[in-house]
Amino acid sequence: MFQERKDRRHANRAFDHGEGVTRFRMRQKMISIGDDYWIDDESGDHQYKVNGKALRARRTYHIEDREGRRVATVQSRPLRIKDSMAIEDADGQRVAIVKKAVIGPLRDRWRIKQEDGEDLRVVGNILDHEYTIERDGYKVAEVSKKWFRVRDTYGLDVGPGADPATVLAAAVAIDAMAHPGD
């Protein structure tokens, strides 16, 4: 038990030092039809575009690489008790569902139910873009706005072994559900 806690603390500390972590910056476009984001790497180069489709019955976001190829789709799931969004891969296969708990007495509670793999837990302050995505207490990703002064810009660190497309899509889904009118 003690060794497991020590290992988890050491693994999570990798995020503080950037060891094996892929860093992205998500920046929402100021003027656009729909919710469009650029996702840049550490050096500021565009890596992904999140193309929010306007005027649809269901909120839909396509995540595309630099060449315009779709790598993931995030889509709302209407008529559900819990607010949720489905994540599909480039082939249209569902890979995860992001769900918000019905009642969260102290803070928002979110789950990412993966089709292949263990479920992920989202912990922290969603509204302020300060949260982590965890699997069994180990950080998979960290979202933070603390390094950015620009409106609608925040960082996303993806840990080693995590699928960046799924983590980025989950962050887009959480952002869309937490800030529906933005």
From TrEMBL:
Pfam family, one: LOR
Annotated InterPro entries: LOR
Protein name listed in UniProt: LURP-one-related family protein
Organism: Streptomyces poriferorum
Top-level taxonomy: Bacteria, Bacillati, Actinomycetota, Actinomycetes, Kitasatosporales
